[in-house]
Amino acid sequence: MVLTFGPTDPVGALGVQADLGCFAAMGCHGVSVVTSILIADTARVEDMQVIDSDWVADQARVLLEDMTVSAFKVGAVGSADNVAAIAEIMADYPDVPLILDPFLSALPDPDQEWEPVLMAMRELLVPQATLFMASAVELARFAESWRDTGGTDMLGADVAHLTGSGCEYVLITGTRLDAQELANTLFDSAGKLRQDAWRRLPGSFSGAGSTISGTVAALLANGMDVPEAVVEAQEFTHAALVNAHRLGMGRLTPDRYFWARDENNAPADTSSPPVDA
């Protein structure tokens, strides 16, 4: 059983719908707590309505009083109050893995000031996270809440700040190596564990990053350790993108059930998963 906190996406490319698909594909039952409601199609997210923090907390408490959860995923939460409510719940389950993937690049520019949200995540959720996942761009934005000065190795310093705060692992996605390749890099408190370079697939995708983090959460619930789960999740994401749906006139949507279709439709090569969050 895996519990995800995040927005609802009408398309199913992002948010809790994407997570539930990943959980099911990994053989896990998924349950969800809605943190916001998106108005979206395959081209864009037009608006977001944040759910009141009391409703977020009540959704989770009712579920957790009824069932046992083997992993948590926290996605975009929308407000500092929601961060605080979720962090209070997570503190009651310190032995359950927590995947924190709080940024969605598809979200519209918010009307509210995001600094309180970033500060709340930094202080309340990051210290409880088993794995924090963000793109290099998202990490740089997040790091503005703690950086004092610039430097030559800001990525390394930013990751060290996160792991020094209590987060066990950090996965930085989408670092550009050249015009054709991106890299995903996994760190722990000792530094870089591994870097995987993947060739870009043609097309524009929505939900690749969500697929990685949702799949990692399910694999941890199944008993894998983090490094192994990160590798497996990237391979699964690549296959889902190779078989992506053209559902509308916008971006392609990962097919998280490619494995359930005719074997002739399976991807020929699953060794090069991209990250195009």
SSE topology:
Layout: E1 2-8, H1 15-25, E2 30-40, E3 45-50, H2 53-66, E4 71-74, H3 80-90, E5 98-100, H4 115-125, E6 131-135, H5 136-143, H6 154-164, E7 169-176, E8 181-188, E9 191-199, H7 208-221, H8 226-242
Parallel strand pairs: 1-2, 1-4, 4-5, 5-6, 6-7
Antiparallel strand pairs: 2-3, 7-8, 8-9
Helix pairs in contact: 1-7, 2-3, 3-4, 7-8
Describe this structure in words.
The protein has helices at 15-25, 53-66, 80-90, 115-125, 136-143, 154-164, 208-221, 226-242; strands at 2-8, 30-40, 45-50, 71-74, 98-100, 131-135, 169-176, 181-188, 191-199. With 277 residues, it is an alpha/beta fold. The chain has a nine-stranded mixed beta sheet with strand order 3-2-1-4-5-6-7-8-9, with helices on both faces. A hairpin with a 4-residue loop joins β2 (30-40) and β3 (45-50). α1 packs across α7 (208-221) and α7 (208-221) packs across α8.
